[in-house]
Specification:
The protein is an alpha+beta fold. It has three helices and eleven strands, in the order αβββββαββββββα.
């Protein structure tokens, strides 16, 4: 009975975090909801010459120029045309706003710390530095991303310079 009570106390004291879940190809991903500012449908992008291949352009978001990145290309997946399900997730990365083009957004999910398995050593098309962990939610595997680590320092600087 004492072990049961200790386990119950541990579960009650665990931090619950919320994630915006989205799809790229057949994979489900999640990013912490506190990093997401909004989700946009189709908007007109302005291409910026000489930028990184995964940077599709910039948008004017209420007077703020925001770089827009195709996460399919960043994660080395096949490029896909923007369709009716595609969205741009506007998130904060190291103090700047950036847009992520994803195939579709699902919903906001809540996960406890124990539901997110830390996985520092595995190989996928997603750079492992950006993977916070893996979780199972409604019988689906979700790759939890740490948005501040999706881009290397030099890539963030290039995005900022591309907006000037």
């Amino acid at each position: 009975m004492q072990q049961y009570n200790e386990n119950l106390k541990k579960k009650v004291s665990e931090e619950i975090r919320q994630y915006v879940s989205f799809r790229i190809g057949n994979e489900m991903f999640g990013i912490e909801v506190m990093k997401v500012q909004e989700v946009l449908g189709q908007v007109e992008l302005t291409a910026v010459p000489g930028t990184m291949p995964f940077m599709k352009g910039v948008i004017d978001l209420r007077g703020v120029i925001v770089p827009v990145i195709d996460l399919r290309l960043k994660f080395k997946a096949l490029e896909k045309q923007f369709d009716r399900d595609s969205v741009i997730i506007i998130a904060e990365i190291k103090g700047i706003l950036a847009g992520f083009i994803v195939d579709s957004v699902s919903d906001v999910i809540s996960l406890s710390e124990s539901e997110v398995q830390r996985t520092p050593h595995f190989s996928t098309e997603v750079e492992t530095d950006s993977v916070e962990g893996i979780a199972k939610y409604n019988d689906k595997i979700i790759i939890i991303l740490e948005v501040d680590r999706i881009f290397r320092a030099g890539e963030i600087e290039q995005m900022i310079q591309g907006n000037r």
